[in-house]
Design a protein that fits this description.
40% of the residues lie in helices and 10% in strands. It is mainly alpha-helical. A hairpin with a 4-residue loop joins strand 1 and strand 2.
Length: 136
């Protein structure tokens, strides 16, 4: 969540861990799912203690930047209010990649859904409550 941390540090769990609280992770998950099928197709997601992964299919002419901004704004307001805090919750930038093949798409889904297992947070992908893997 913090803008001054490198991605590898986030993967190791360094930084602000507001999303370790189930109520905060639920806010993010509900936001991701809210416009699924309306503005985008949500193919995979995982909410980690310090960051979020989401794989979306842009099929409804909504620009990715607008989608991400909506997520960040809605979740920041809700989490900051519930935590009694102010200030930035998310990094300004986000990292996107265009999926160029079915293999790349499948590998990305696997990476996203395996993130909690790789981080030692659970034994199996379906055990993580804030991930698309629990629905498979």
């Amino acid at each position: 969540l913090r803008a001054d941390l490198a991605d590898d540090q986030l993967d190791r769990g360094v930084g602000c861990k507001l999303l370790v609280k189930h109520a905060n992770a639920e806010v993010v998950q509900s936001c991701l799912l809210h416009d699924d099928g309306v503005k985008y197709g949500l193919a995979a997601w995982c909410i980690m203690p310090t960051h979020v992964h989401a794989l979306v299919e842009l099929r409804f002419d909504a620009p990715l930047a607008d989608i991400v901004q909506t997520w960040k704004s809605a979740t920041s307001h809700a989490i900051n209010k519930s935590e009694g805090r102010k200030g930035r919750l998310w990094r300004r930038e986000y990292f996107d990649r265009f999926m160029r093949s079915e293999d790349q798409f499948s590998n990305t889904v696997a990476y996203i859904e395996n993130n909690p297992v790789a981080a030692g947070l659970c034994e199996a992908t379906a055990d993580w409550p804030f991930s698309s893997a629990r629905l498979r």
